[in-house]
Amino acid sequence: MLRCINFLEEPSEGEIEIGDLKIPAGAKGKEHQALVHQARLLTGMVFQDFNLFPHYTVLENVMRPPIIVKRMDAARAREIAEMNLDRVGMLFKKDEYPSRISGGQKQRVAIARALAMEPRVMLFDEPTSALDPELIGEVLNVMKKLAKDGMTMLVVTHEMGFAREVADRVLVMADGELIEDGKPEQIFNAPKDPRTEALIVRYRTGGN
Q1: Within a 10 A sphere around the Cβ of 189, how many other Cβ atoms?
Q2: In 10 A of CB 154, how many CB atoms?
Q3: 43 touches 119 (CB < 8 A)
Q4: 3 state DSSP class of 129
Q5: Per-residue pLDDT tens over the stretch 53-111
Q6: Per-residue confidence at 202, pLDDT binned at 50, 70, 90?
Q7: Burial bucket for residue 191 (CB in 10 Å: 0-12, 13-18, 19+)
Q8: What is the DSSP secondary-structure string of 155-195?
Q9: Positive or negative, the Cα torsion across 128, 131, 136, 138?
Q10: Cα–Cα distance between 190 and 192 in angstroms, integer?
Q11: pLDDT (0 to 100) of residue 55
Q12: FRET partner for 75 with CA separation of 20 to 30 A, picked from 24, 34, 193, 196?
């Protein structure tokens, strides 16, 4: 679903809406590509496996997207990159290469890189699934801060406690279908679909 929102995958039917931008599925041509470009400018994507450029420093990784996509001058891109690295607690590692930082630090750099594009909405694809358990908290803390600051985030996650604490709205999907949609208290306390109920029971009993 996340990949359809920013057209890394072309949706087969329906319409993608981001704010006032509406893009019908299945369209082609220059006008459609221009709309897709707008959609990507409005969304920041954080992947589960970081996708940092290994031959660029932390700072360069965050600077490159605004320079390439927005054609921003290097001085302004550096300013924005340093601001967002500071925002996620990674400014002190700005001159390091990705191979010299931990998985949690890599994911925080990836979040800073997405923020540098000044998106309307952040898309997180299982942002903690590739991390060791002791590193998950540092990434979730950054995301909690973003939520507190008012950033709109769409997060695919199996971190049920995080979803319950931070989300305004929880959607449960199974077999490619939306099976539950509601406030966290409704989803976790009174699920309507038996598949959701089974998921909640596993969460409460510490299962996977």
Answers
A1: 10
A2: 15
A3: yes
A4: coil
A5: 999 999 999 999 999 989 999 999 999 999 999 999 999 999 999 999 999 999 999 99
A6: confident
A7: buried
A8: EE---HHHHHHH-SSEEEEETTEEEEEE-HHHHHHS-SSHH
A9: negative
A10: 6
A11: 97
A12: 34
Tokens linked to 206? 């510490």
The DSSP 8-state label assigned to residue 82 in this structure reads H
Average pLDDT, the chain: 93
Cβ neighbours, 10 Å, residue 13? 7
Supply 27's token pair.
């369209």
DSSP state of 91: G
CA nearest to 110, candidates 63, 175, 43, 51: 51
Contact call for residues 37 and 8 (beta carbons, < 8 A) = no
Q: Which residue has the tokens 């969304």?
A: 43
Number of helices (H), then strands (E), in the chain: 9, 7
pTM beyond 0.90 = no
CA distance 114 to 156: 16
Q: What is the pLDDT of residues 185-195, one digit of tens each?
A: 999 999 999 99
The span from the CA of 1 to the CA of 206, in Å, is 27
